[in-house]
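[step 3/7] inverse_fold.run input=structure_tokens len=246
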């Protein structure tokens, strides 16, 4: 039973990707796999054993930072399951009382277990961090207002009321709507360009200091997400420059 659990725990999590495809076995974008490089004869065992190819932790964790955000819930669940197994029933496989795996009879299983535990611990950390703190890019104003609630809770009503008053057309279009017959203010919150760029750096710095991951493309005057985050920041921190705030 424990052996079967071990095999499951070391299994492959597949992340869809069109980057590569082998003739016999399609590559769906492997986040983790302990693969078999070739078959070698082990004299001590008197039988054929596959050579181990351990995962490149640095490369795979780097990849985990880049996969689509929508796929990370599956990664988080998979990695949490693997880490829980090797911290629980499968802990003996890691031979935690020994410094090196060659000190125990199950050297190969120990090596795989330690590699799997180390990698999935990192993948769990990355997927959890991204799910909690990464805000995806959007040109939809309603979605942008919802995203702004994660770092700035309680500002949705303010954003909705203000944008409804300033630019109702922004709810039904992704265009950059400007007041061409008046002030020249633009966007859902009708920011003046100078007002936006004088407050945006503070909003950006605040979000970064609190661990949030925001796309670089959000930090422009013409970005709905940028306007939502900057406006919500101004309201949340009671900025004097918040010219719509009551």
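[step 3/7] decode complete -> sequence:
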């Amino acid at each position: 039973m424990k052996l079967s659990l071990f095999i499951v725990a070391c299994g492959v999590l597949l992340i869809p990707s069109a980057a590569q495809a082998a003739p016999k076995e399609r590559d769906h974008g492997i986040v983790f796999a302990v693969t078999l490089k070739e078959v070698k004869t082990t004299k001590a065992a008197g039988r054929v054993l596959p050579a181990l190819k351990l995962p490149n932790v640095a490369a795979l964790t780097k990849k985990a930072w880049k996969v689509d955000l929508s796929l990370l819930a599956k990664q988080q669940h998979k990695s949490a399951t693997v880490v829980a197994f090797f911290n629980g029933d499968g802990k003996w496989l890691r031979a935690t009382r020994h410094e090196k795996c060659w000190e125990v009879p199950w050297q190969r299983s120990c090596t795989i277990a330690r590699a799997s535990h180390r990698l999935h611990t990192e993948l769990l950390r990355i997927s959890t961090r991204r799910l909690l703190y990464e805000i995806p890019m959007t040109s939809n104003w309603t979605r942008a207002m919802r995203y702004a609630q994660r770092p700035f809770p309680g500002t949705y009503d303010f954003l909705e009321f203000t944008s409804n008053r300033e630019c109702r057309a922004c709810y039904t279009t992704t265009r950059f709507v400007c007041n061409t017959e008046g002030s020249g203010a633009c966007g859902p919150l009708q920011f003046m360009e100078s007002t936006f760029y004088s407050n945006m750096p503070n909003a950006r710095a605040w979000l970064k200091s609190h661990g949030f991951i925001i796309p670089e493309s959000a930090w422009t005057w013409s970005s709905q997400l940028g306007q939502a985050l900057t406006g919500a920041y101004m309201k949340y921190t009671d900025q004097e420059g918040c010219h719509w705030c009551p």
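[step 4/7] annotate
The CA atoms of residues 60 and 74 lie 16 Å apart.
The longest strand covers residues 35-42.
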